[in-house]
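Please, structure for the following, as tokens.
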Amino acid sequence: MDVNRVGRENSAMEITTGVATDADAVAELHTASWRRAYVTLFPVQYLDGPLLAERQQVWQARLAEPVPGAALFLAMASVLLGFVYLEPQPDGRVLLNNLHARPGDTGRGLGRRLLGHALAWSATAHPGQDVYLQVLQGNTRAVAFYERHGGRRTATRICRFDQGFELPEFEYTWPASVPASTRSPAHR
């Protein structure tokens, strides 16, 4: 598969670097993605409550004062279709903290392209550093996606949310020891 090939519906899509003025659009897509993916996992009062305001606060803060070495990439067409956010961690790895596609635009290669871009960027910007992410075990669609695209399950733990609930999660890693050209989704 070609990492730059996306379904016909997204053929005019391009990946750009996000900036502070993108915070609200990213927060809206992030909220919509969580409301769809986590409808059976998160408490309804949280999903229907303060989620958008919380995500806006998170993204405005992240983009107003970016962590050195972090990156936000946007999949853009006439609207924001998806995004991926990466942040270097004190343990020497790079956390792929967010990867979201607009609900209704999944299953068309968008996530594969964003993941491929993120892994390639990380190999250049943070050579020799593993890329990892955390995904809720109940998000079976995402778990299957990461496994299909080369993620290696490296840990299982409980994620504790500030809102007072806990859910089991997996950690997936794309090792730096695997050449970037072969750890990319384009080569799976």
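The chain has a mean pLDDT of 89. The beta strands are 14-17, 71-76, 80-88, 94-101, 131-136, 152-160, 166-174.
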